[in-house]
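S.,

Sequence below, as promised.
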Amino acid sequence: CAGQPPSDNMGVKNTFDGAERISSTFHVDYLRVTAWIDLKDWEDVYDRTLGANLGDWVSLGRGGRFYEQVYEAHLKSRLYKIPTVEGHDPDQITIELPGKVCQFLGWEVLQTFLLELHVYSRRLSVTRIDLAFDNAPFEVGQFWEAVNGEGCRTYARRETFKRFENPFELRESGVVGCSTVQVGQRESLRMLRVYDKHGSTRVELEAHDEKAQQIAMHLFTTSAELEDEIMREVHSRAMGHLRDFIDVTASWWEEFTAGFLRAYMKLTGKTAKEIDATEVANWVFKQVSMAFSVCVDVYGEAMIQKLLAYGRKKRAGNVRYQIILGESL
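The prediction came back faster than expected:
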């Protein structure tokens, strides 16, 4: 059955006008990943990382999202298998983890899952990730007025700015009436929602396709070591991506973003080979280096050559590593 790990939403203390306060909390509120992976390897990765928390997959008896089979696990996690599009790899799968699942699992579990899946897949693509910041120190109406004024910088076109009011909907805090502002559109690489359905104001950046991949790999490959440092660095990186998409000239926005700089990350012409090599190296330093150092200290430096020889033998025929190394397929 599904377990109950502790949630590790990230609250970061900030200083604004000399006063220390909890400026916001951050969490991933949605994650969708497509992987090209041997199904046995997928089952092993799932069992090691998510299985104890989400439980077994149950078939819904139908297809969806251009797949023949759809499965569901705890809190409506979804797994899609066997593509219906002609010519697609039969080992292609897609997994969806909605907001409640992401919060239930917590950051460390999500990070371990994504990095392990990345290593064991021939190819991996994060096709959607939502970054949610709660406890924003402003009202939805204030944000709407600001983005319609002159003090707003954003990549979204002004005609995509929308406001929705539901005066009778009940917020989670018990207050009646919900407001939502949308900047951008879902068909784009990024869009923003600012809303108060959960009580306090939430600012939520939704990213798709190559932008989702870039943001996810930037967040999940943090180089920090201690848990507090990891959470602070991830929050900072996430806020940097938010500020890349939009910035507002207002004291309350300055309070919300105080201490967080823009990420200044644009989509580049980097090849898949360059990106994959960097991500593999980040994974090795993050997940393998500690155990590797113990092996070398116990068995001596001859272990280095043994591991290299074993790894080179084991990677034979792996398409992803052949691409990185520039080997003929």
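The CA atoms of residues 296 and 303 lie 6 Å apart.

Coffee later?
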